[in-house]
Amino acid sequence: MKTLTQSALMLFLIAGLFSCTKTTGVEKTQILGKWEIKNDSLASGVGPYVTVKNYIGTTADYFDFRADNKLYIKEGARLDTSAYHVVSDSTIVINSFGITFNGVPETSKIKSLTTNSVTIFTPFAVNPGAYYLRTVNLKR
Hints:
The protein is an alpha+beta fold. The model is unreliable at 7-25 (pLDDT under 50). The protein has 2 helices and 12 strands. 15% of the residues lie in helices and 53% in strands. The strands form 2 sheets. The chain has an 8-stranded antiparallel beta barrel with strand order 1-3-4-5-6-9-10-12. A two-stranded antiparallel sheet has the order 7-8.
């Protein structure tokens, strides 16, 4: 099982590295509105201990980006409200989305934003022996 988990993590990492495409300009208005969750995956671990989670969204789940820089998230029975802001054409900061270092939330990347889909992911964070990778795929 350990080998399978490590293989799955390596597959996520390799796919992420080689599937990068040039992101076109992102304006805040392009991300506004309610998005249905296709999946929300998280790979984290320390040393050889890897935890991989992949939540498959339902039609009732959503990320709702509002014009007042608030993000409302519903995943199953879990509800969350967070602040967000678009930093540049390919980056976004969502409080509580990734790792927070010294009170500063990690900057996430926006990839493949179209009118019908968007992928948001945290860069692969490496701390001596530790790592964290979260990817959310949304659709309208």
